[in-house]
Amino acid sequence: MKALRWQVAAIVAASLLFPLVVRSDYYQHVFILALMWVVIGSSWNLLAGYTGQVSFGHAIFFGIGAYTAGLCATKAGISAWWGMVLGGPMAALIGFVIGWVCFRLRGPYFALATIAVGEIFRLVAVVWRSFTGGMQGILLIQTFRSKLPYYYLALFLALACIYVIHAVMRSKWGYYFVAIREDQDAAESMGVNAFRYKSLSLIVSAFFTGLAGAFYMNYMAFIDPEVVFSLHHISIMAILVGIIGGVGTLWGPPLGAFIMVLLQETFRSSFFGLAPRWVSELHVLVFGLLVIFVILYLANGIVGDWGKIQRLWSSKAGGGAPAAGKSS
Amino acid sequence: MAVFIQTVVAGILMGGIYALIGIGMTLIMGVMKIINLAHGQLMMVAMYITYVLYEHVHLDPYAALLITMPCLFVLGAVLQRYLLNPLIKVESILPENQVLMTVGIGMVLTELARMIFHSDYKSVRPPYTSMSLYAGSIAFNLPMVIAFGIAVLLTIGLFLFLLKTDVGKSVRATAQNKEAALLLGVNAERITIFTYGLGAALVAAAGTLLLPIYYLFPDLGGAFTLKAFVITILGGLGSTVGAIVGGVVLGVSESLGATYISMALKDAVGMVIFLLVLIFLPGGLKRLTKI
Amino acid sequence: MKKLLCVALCLTLVGAFGVASPWAADTLKVGIILPITGAKANFGEIEKLSFEMALQEINAAGGINGKKLEFLFEDDTGRPEVARSAAEKLITKDKVLMLGGGYGSSETFAIAGVAQQNRIPFLVNTGSDDKITEQGWEYIFRLNPPVSEYPKALESFLTEVVKPKTAAILYENTNFGSSGSQEFKAICERLGIQVVVDEGYEHGGVDFKPILVKVKDKNPDLVYMISYVMDASLLMRQAMELRIKPKLFVGGAAGFTLPEFPKNAGKAAEKVFSATLWYQTLKYPGAMDYYNKFVATYKKDTEYHGAEAYAAAYVIADVLKRAKSTSADDIRKALSETDMMTVFGPVKFISYDKKTNQNRLPTYLVQWIDGRLELVWPKELATKPYVYPIDWDAVWK
User: Model-level pTM?
Assistant: First the structure.
């Protein structure tokens, strides 16, 4: 336990120092994106990994958060930073309503319903031009020239999200969440109000995803429905981030987020210019192959199956200590 | 009135294509109880095969059916055998692992197509593609009529196959109750491989018939996957007749929605119907008709 | 388990920073951001090839004051946050002197934001949303006209020749389509044309008949469509199928001028008009040579997007030649003093209305006549006289 605390402290310290050591805007930007995905992936994981409700619609909450922030500026005439205050609750509210409708469905049917709701949100945002600006999107001017405020805000969001999930999962709620995931009927027969706890899980999950969306609006300063309500680039990415890192683990989605963003950047820039140009066209392919590989051989993700990886490594390395694998 | 009739006609013809896309999905979902999120991507693969055959061997798309369907059957069976079936034995937290695997498969298929054919739009335009039949002022697009006819034929064929043959009966038994089927000596693993192959072959037919009407690019799959599961839920899992009815219902309601509500909300119409059926009519139209 | 996280972090850090980009002092680096993969890659490819072709010519002719010019291409994959990553990388890591490219409007916004904040000049050559040059961003310059000016030539054609009373506007629901439709609606109001149908659609549709049935029912004089090439082909084919016969069909640039349009639409493409920004027979020096050379080198067709990129490459070379130093401010100053002729027309960045640093160009009207795209308006530049009125029954026979 103590060792774990040490490592968490080390991670926090390293991430606090990172932008002070690495001054390049580019790397800071990549890490900001990764931290944003930590929030999205972890939130998805709370609902899917811990509570067992696989959502294919997290783009809804991301988009609601982003549009709340954007509309603060374009419609309410206040700073888009109010989105950081209002975006989360707004997404949570929408989440509650969606849960109210969709939680009567189970398993794959719930997943299908979330896809449908997500598509409806996207289409409405496209069509409702007078309110959302339609496909012309919302354009703002970034508040800060420096990356540091954005970096620390994203870091704060990521840590807060991880901490809250950690705290929730250690409370009574977490116990009920897992009980619902393992067997909803059994949980209900034990007196757990499944609908209530699924809704609570969704509300927390939507809240943080909405914050990530509001952050995206402030940081990127431009959104349109295709970007923030995207099934492929947000909803499905959130799932893959969770899968690769490990569903139902605290540190899986954060790891998955970093892998996804760094893999994309590394390939997109052809290994930072070292590899031939055509490599850059492989980034999605490599990510897809990684997903297949992980599902096939590491069904619980890299973190979830870490023990398995260690065993494999040590047996391959001729019985060497697991530490040998890590130092390479 | 002419507006209304033409809208409905367009919807019904579109429904034929939708039905073909949905029928493979309903089979897969009925037997394996998984959502095949690579369905549209499998269709895309079939369309590229059709395209290559037309471009290099000048093979007519309708003749190409005889090649694309077996090809996709093999591809589907291989995917099921080596990527999806192993997951049944793997212990994991989420039961949806197979669904997520199909997402990965879809991504890889799309990117492979992009590597080979680039992002350019491709199309196959035999001379009959723009021919139409006219009844008064109402136009019936010829390739769509043909596609509709073939969709009906394939549905009937599949229906009889499931009803009369031993393999078909095993498929139905597995869909209804896997454990009981196992007890009766059905090799469930082989049935799933066969079913996925068959589902892929059927969507290959849809792709090949769609190509003369539409066009082709690597990212085309996603949109059609969405349509496929809407139809499946609408018609009822595993119901071949449900798929064709679901396809036509979807086609007509999209058409009417586009004409009388807004073209931009055409896709939303399908999604709303889908949600309503999912929530208020679980089991889909199958529950009403009992077939 | 958490050790793993640390290890992963360390590994990525080492991987990311242990790598120094190869730096050669005698080349002038310019970053070009285009969609090379993803749904918009089709046009990104044409632009990239055009940039490369121009680069070869520039360096073969002695480069920039004895130094070689180098274009660093980055892929924005058609997504704004990736475009932003690309811009950040080019500016802070590769230390490029200026940026070029910018295809989709959303991506162009993202890049422009980074460029302006870092005070690096950015020459936009395709992103066409009006707002891009309406922000007062002094480091952002645009070579191509904004989307609101695309139908300028059409406007005079309508007032002088067609004089339509009613119009239908169909547009794809993208940034380009929806802003284009709004601008055209404003033109209709100005000319006293009644808009009877005004509808957007999701691009990539299979069946456009529901929307076309409505158009047929209203029987407008003019059908104006803002669509990319495959939607354009399907729209025209299905319009022919439904026998919709307005006085004229007009495309709002984009898909209607591409060679794939007649290939896919067949005879339904015939006699369709389109607004365009450029055409190879225009009397701009080198326009026809560019077209011929591109077709000969890459064995495929090019169109106005390619010409925009090719011209942008020459503007960049010209600017770097004139700039007093390689500092961003000197380059920006040189850009604002640009006054040159390119294959895409004269380039001079001016401020008008709400726009700053915007190149102002005339636009043209083309028509598909006997399977060839001909420039028909303005009349004095026409390669063939326009065909109007059109007997659709004869055309579609």
Answer: 0.90
